[in-house]
Amino acid sequence: MNDTICAIATNPNMGAIAIIRVSGTEAIEIVNQMFKESDLTKAASHTIWYGHLVDQDEILDEVLVMLMRAPRTYTKEDVVEINCHGGVNTTARILSALLSHGIRLAEPGEFTKRAFLNGRISLLEAESVNDLIKAKNDAARIMALNNIGGKLTSQIRDIREKMGKVLANIEVNIDYPEYEDEVQVTRNLMQEYLSEFIEKLHQLVANSQNGKIINNGLNVAIIGRPNVGKSSILNFLLDEDKAIVTDIPGTTRDIVEGSINLNGLLLNFIDTAGLRQTEDTVEKIGVLKSQQMADQADLIIYVINGSEQITPQELDHLASLKNKEIIVFVNKNDLPLQADLTLLKDYDYVEGNTKDNDGLEALKKAIITKYNLPKIINKEMSYLSNVRQIHLIEEAEKALLNAQESFNQGMEVDIIEIDLKKTWDLLGQLIGDAYNEELVDNIFRNFCLGK
Amino acid sequence: MKNMYDCIVVGGGHAGCEAAHIAAQMGKKTLLVTGNIKNIADMPCNPSIGGTAKGIIVREVDALGGLMGKIADISHLQIKMLNNSKGPAVRSLRAQADKITYPENMRKALQNTLNLTIKEAMIEDLVVENQTVKGVVTAEGEKILSQTVILTTGTYLKGNILIGSENTPGGPHGEARSNHLSDKLKEYGLKIMRLKTGTPQRIKKDSIDFSVLHEEKGDNKLWKFSFDTEYAYKIEDQQSCYLVYTNAKTHQIIRDNLKKSAMYGGYATGIGPRYCPSIEDKIVRFADKERHQLFLEPESIYYDDWYLQGFSTSMPRDVQELMVHSLKGLEHAEITKYAYAIEYDAIDPLQVMPSLENKVLTNLFTAGQINGTSGYEEAAGQGIMAGINAVLKINGQKPLVLKRSDAYIGVLIDDLVTKGTAEPYRMLTSRAEFRLLLRSDNADLRLREYAHQVGSITEEQYQNYLTKKSQIEKTITYLKTNHLKMTSAVKEIFTQNNWEIPKSSLTFYELLKRPNITLASLEQFLTLDLPEEIKEQVEIEIKYEGYIQKAFKEVDKLLRLEAKEIPEDIDYAKVQNLASEARQKLAKIRPKTIAQATRISGVNPVDISVLSVYLKKEYNHD
Q: What pLDDT digit, counting tens, does each position of A9-27 carry?
């Protein structure tokens, strides 16, 4: 039914060894035609064979061939993986030989797509494969790996199953209204169910914020009056850290100058270029500019000069940012303290100075504490992390809150059920158990080749 | 040769009555052939019309110009609105129909229908030329010709009555069955399946100790099914039903004798309905339940049989005696008719088009149990559609296919022709995804326009509908444009009712949207000289407006999928990545649209994605 596809599964440009993956009904037969030493069609599943690949009497390479028969394979189809010598020439030669034998080059993501379509992995797990490949740091990698294990899928499936049971119970009450022996979904019971579901979904939504942070990092803005030392702090953070990441393709917005990896968390500093340009030109830095920066930021490092009084403007500004995460850095503690720090009692603040690099480690620690990094980044973490997933889980939570709202308004059970059913459906779309028009197509389009 | 009839309907049950009546009403020369005129509109099972979801179907039949609701309104012993407190969408009427007067009134109505002839005969074959049906052949060999034939054969195709190991060929009252018609249909290329249904004991009234049973009265409010008639009964004249419970002793008797039942003893081959299981099925499947609820319902005021709902069984007679006598209140009960199971032949509804015309035999329509359904109302719903579409076919017009968002009848037929059925199909509220739109109260608003277009209702019925519609609209506009002045007297009433006092004066429309405020409660501030059904409609449309809007959005989504047609020539073998079960089902059912494909069991979301991608690629489909 499925034609046979192949692709180079490893980075084609380097590496001593490369792997070419072949999957489909003719995978074993065709590779066998090129394999001289043994008859692979008779070989047992999950065995490794040493030999040479030959095409039109020309020896292509000395290889190890891994043979895996359906269904216990990545795609649930017959799979052959050819371990050959690395480098563009060898791999390209073997690939073109495979193609000339009638095997088709895989589309991006096609192996994973088949694994999904053949029912081996859920949609979430399939997406995680992509996340794993694209992981920018170790935390993102571990998270993706955990998600491939299906932990999140089974968590969501559990909630959805319970919800399905409640829905079924409501339906039974409606279709058999006079059967008093059945459990009746009363208002009390309904409230209990709703609270439980809301709590669980809320947890997932909250966790998905962690997932987003782990995958994409945090956008950090350094804000403050002119000459309070913003660029020095930036330079310290960027220069001191050995794990500077710059110019991450595709993800870096123009305004991001540099990123650092802080205990597994990516910090993207925004508009730092602008910051440097305007540092000395007092009149250029307006409220507007810092507002733009603040809007784009997840975290704001607000710098003040501790050797001067805190101005009313600064306090107003801070107050206007209250729906953002803020850490105040009280700079210039090498000079006598003039600022009234009690005014900052509602904020996290760190004292220090950029002259002696004092307090800058403490600033990093404050960030780590603020995001509870040891807790969110760990070996077991499993969060919804990409835009599609987060959108769906948020929609599901919204629908559930609508159900709660209907309940509070005293609406009948049948009306409350409308939004409960919608929640159930959205969770189904999330793990791929319910049909959504554009879904599968879009997801697999983003895959890299060979997986 | 000239056709003698435009339409022949075979079978005088609930499907046949509606089909014959509507075809004749729409001006076609119609013949209703039945094995026994006395059995027209017979109710061989429960003595009720309506019930959850089913009551809504009755109203839909009425809206389309059918008879069931009108006849039920003048033939019942009790009527109730079920689920009154569970939301507007799930309310549904159920009437305890009198088993003598209902068939009688139906027969009279048919006899008074212009263009309709009724004939007593058993049909054993069809006249078929080139896979086109041209008439019917009676057991005596008489050929009667017609342009269209509607088969509504109920349980009479090779019907078998099962009581324990006894197996008697025949219909529910021991009448003759059709022995050959299903074999003939098979020869013509139809797939035949065997189904089973059952009915419980009838108990003699005098032998029941009602004093220990819980009484269930009719509603203390007048109800009717039909949109065209007046109330024809008095609340106080209603008869009661009674609640009965099984107990440990009953369950023990059933378990001890399980092997003797036709079903568990292996004497039956038909597949029974899950939603109306026999009592032995219930005991086996829900072993941990200590008791099951049963209802005693009067069958008629003209004779003394009471129907023991929920106790259907295929146990032998002696075991039935033990079972019935184990029930509290029925210790000395006299069984006037034993419970039995009945097996019969049906066709595979996957061979039926959404118009109810057959895919294999042109000009043949089917409705009711022959299509694999169970229930009088399901039968009537299909009957009227088969009748309407047979007429439209004769006229060379497009068939009327109700969508899932139009009517329960639409859901019913779509389910049948899309999913097929392995057991007698019963309509349930939960089968409808747009039930907030498919309410009992608005069946006329949903369907009378269609009925008018195809000509199945009279001009008078249509005008009444238009008047009602405009009254509703005017009233809503009135409520939207008139404010309630918050005088101190009004505020006082608000406080008394525990309603939140608005900050500024609100329109009645805005007030009605608030929790706990009903239209009736607002009537102390304004005069609405309107019939109850208008007020009800106005209240529902305002109070649930947000939810109804949401439902319409979902309908739009569905309609977009319905608009994605699957080309007739698609070769499913060429669609890569389809799961093999999905491929088989799709190839067999050949859904017309993506929406229909999503509803086929065994076709998973992933398969639909695969199919959409394929259509996009191969057919530039959007």
A: 887 566 788 899 999 999 9
With b meaning 16 or more CB within 10 Å and e meaning fewer, what string describes B123-139? bbbbbbeeeebbbbbbb
Instruction: Give the whole-angstrom CA distance, residue A375 versus residue A263.
Output: 12
pLDDT number for residue A109? 76
CB atoms within 10 A of CB A322: 9
CB nearest to A412's CB, from B85, B435, B583? B85
Distance CA A433, CA B450 (A): 37
DSSP string across A185-229: --HHHHHHHHHHHHHHHHHHHHHHHHHHHHHH-EEEEEEESTTSS
Amino acid letter, B372:
G
Is residue B32 within 8 A of residue B118, CB to CB? The reply is: yes
Both A202 and A227 in a single domain?
no
Task: Inspect the interface and report whether the beta carbons of B289 and A181 lie closer than 8 Å.
Answer: yes
Q: At what angle do helices A360-370 and A230-240 cross, to 10 degrees?
A: 80
Does the pLDDT of residue A280 top 50, yes or no?
A: no
Which pLDDT belongs to residue A297? 84
CATH topology of domain B564-619: DNA polymerase; domain 1 (1.10.150)
* Domain boundary residue, one of A122, A142, A164: A122
Phi, psi of B458 (to 5 degrees): -80, 165
Suggest the residue from B294, B296, B430 to mutate for an interface test with chain A (most A CBs closer than 10 A).
B430
The DSSP element (H or E) to which B522 belongs, if any, is: helix B519-522
CA distance B46 to chain A (A): 15
Q: How close A172 gets to chain B, by Cα (Å)? A: 8
pLDDT reported for residue A244: 37
Q: Chains A and B: how many Cβ contacts under 8 Å? A: 96
pLDDT for A148: 64
Mean pLDDT calculated for residue range B202-231: 95
pTM for the model stands at: 0.78
Nearest Cα residue to A278 out of A223, A318, A233, A317: A223
What's the ipTM?
Answer: 0.81
- Residue A367 sits in the same domain as residue A390: no
Using the Cβ of B90 and the Cβ atoms of chain A, whether some distance falls under 8 Å is answered with: yes
Q: Which of A117, A119, A413 sits opposite B610 (nearest CB)?
A: A117
Q: Given pLDDT bands bounded at 50, 70 and 90, which one contains residue B272? A: low
Shortest distance, CA B544 to any CA of chain A (angstroms): 9
Q: Which fold has domain B459-548?
A: Arc Repressor Mutant, subunit A (1.10.10)
Structure tokens at A263: 């205990």
Q: Are strands A17-23 and A79-85 parallel, antiparallel or unpaired?
A: antiparallel
pLDDT tens, residue by residue, B450-465: 999 999 999 999 999 9
Note whether A238 and A328 are same-domain residues. Answer: yes
Is A15 within a domain? yes
**Cβ contact, residue pair A175, B86, below 8 Å:** no
For residues B71 and B101, is the Cβ–Cβ distance under 8 A?
A: no
Instruction: Give CA angle at B610 (B609, B611), nearest 5°.
Output: 90
Using a CB-CB cut-off of 8 Å, the residues of chain B touching A436 are 605
Sheet holding A348-351, edge to edge: A256-262, A265-270, A218-224, A299-305, A325-331, A348-351
Structure tokens at A447: 């895959």
